[in-house]
Amino acid sequence: MALFTGTPRSIRASGASLNAPGQWQTADQVGPVRKLGGVGPGQHYYDPSSFAPVTEQRFGNSGRNILDTPGVTNLDLSIFKKFPIGETAEAQFRAEFFNLTNTPQFGRFNDNVNSGGFMTITSASNPRVARIGLRFSF
Questions:
Q1: In terms of residue numbers, what domain contains 49?
Q2: Taking the model in full, what pTM does it have?
């Protein structure tokens, strides 16, 4: 079993106000941060109204790595059974299940305040996988 918290992320804004096109800086935090927990198109993971792009010639006021991406919950299971065959040989049945509970592992949220999908998560990974096998030893 594995349980991990999400990785910290900074909220990015365009560096154009600093005359640094193609670069980024931290955005302005204009309100309290509220975690909404939404996943999918049009659903916000954090409240996007808490942040705004920087429009003046200065750095943004939000800190670095202030928000966490979704955490990871994973349960793997393996089952092995040995069957003796004669005196020197044996067969082993194996069944392995990765992400047994089929818990989705969501990607990171869009952290660019200047983009249209700001604070949305549109990706997931790590589907359930089952593997069975038979091993002969002699």
A1: 26-54+70-137
A2: 0.75
